[in-house]
Design goal:
alpha/beta, Rossmann fold, 40% helix, two-stranded parallel sheet, 13 strands
Length: 308
């Protein structure tokens, strides 16, 4: 039986964290990306093609799907990418672990649990719902074994393409205003990248995880103001914080396509956005998650070297 763990999208924030988690645990890893191979475990493949996906997944026991299209192209490209990757996973006889998020639920009141309906009506939410159904449908039909691990907004080492990235950590290190996207005083679940990776690897190695979605464990929700205070406490200097309002998002979005895309899911920013991860903790606990103060300090340390 194969013991190979394959990580698709291995140079991205989540993918690289999964590679680090697997490697630290002594697992045999193939790190797949479109870019040139940088080490003995790296593998170059275009998993948007059937040929590339089959080659990338060949010989795998578990495939971690951390690759994704550009944010603005999810609706057009994510379902097709998923179908191609399913072909590669099926050809390998492997198990698929999908690095998922919370878009499928749409606006909710109260903590999110995995049994909520997939009620999103925006294009990105519908695309993610289609992707999830493709994966779980393939599991139900016996084509593959599969599970999904859902996480909220993340931060951590290598987390540069995230709303809790450079505009928070790099800004604080430079003594500039650290900006939180949304209401500064609403509680929000945020996930630390190494914790996300640990949760995904747990799902990959536990058979009882198969056939459903799980909310990955994270530290307790914090408000934007509380989180930025933790960042500044670790960074030192005079704290400078600000929230990006819906009005500001609309104005900046006229010139910045990435910021413009945030409007589609602004309901994640203007109210409490809280993840209930109790099902994961009950099934796979005890679970250790990183306190936000510790995670913020480690992320700042990474940014110091990244920016150097």
């Amino acid at each position: 039986m194969s013991d190979l763990h394959v990580v698709l999208g291995a140079t991205g924030a989540i993918g690289s964290a999964v590679v680090a988690e697997l490697t630290a645990g002594g697992r045999r890893v193939r790190a797949v990306s479109r870019g040139a191979a940088a080490g003995p475990g790296d593998f170059r493949a275009d998993v948007t093609t059937t040929e590339g996906a089959v080659a990338a997944c060949a010989g795998a026991a578990v495939v971690y799907q951390c690759a994704q299209p550009q944010y603005g192209r999810w609706a057009e490209e994510f379902p097709g990418l998923t179908r191609t990757i399913l072909t590669g996973v099926e050809a390998a006889g492997a198990k698929l672990v999908m690095a998922d998020n919370l878009y499928v639920y749409g606006p909710v009141e109260g903590p999110m649990t995995e049994d909520l309906p997939h009620a999103a009506t925006n294009p990105k939410g519908r695309a993610r719902a289609e992707v999830d159904e493709l994966i779980l449908g393939a599991h139900r039909s016996g084509r593959i074994r599969a599970t999904l691990g859902r996480a909220s907004d993340y931060y951590g080492p290598r987390g540069v393409n995230t709303i809790i990235g450079p505009t928070v950590f790099a800004a604080a290190l430079a003594g500039k205003t650290a900006r939180w996207v949304g209401d500064l005083d609403q509680p929000h679940t945020v996930a630390y990248l190494p914790d996300v990776a640990a949760g995904l690897v747990t799902l990959g190695e536990r058979a009882e995880a198969d056939g459903r979605a799980w909310h990955l464990p994270a530290a307790a929700p914090v408000t934007g103001r509380e989180f930025l205070d933790l960042v500044w406490a670790a960074a030192g200097g005079r704290p400078r914080v600000a929230g990006l309002s819906r009005t500001a998002q609309r104005l900046i979005g006229l010139f910045n396509p990435t910021v413009r895309e945030l409007g589609e899911t602004w309901y994640q920013r203007d109210r409490a956005f809280i993840v209930d991860d109790s099902a994961f903790r009950k099934a796979f606990g005890p679970v250790k998650v990183t306190p936000h103060a510790e995670g913020a300090a480690a992320t700042l340390d990474w940014y110091r070297h990244y920016a150097a």
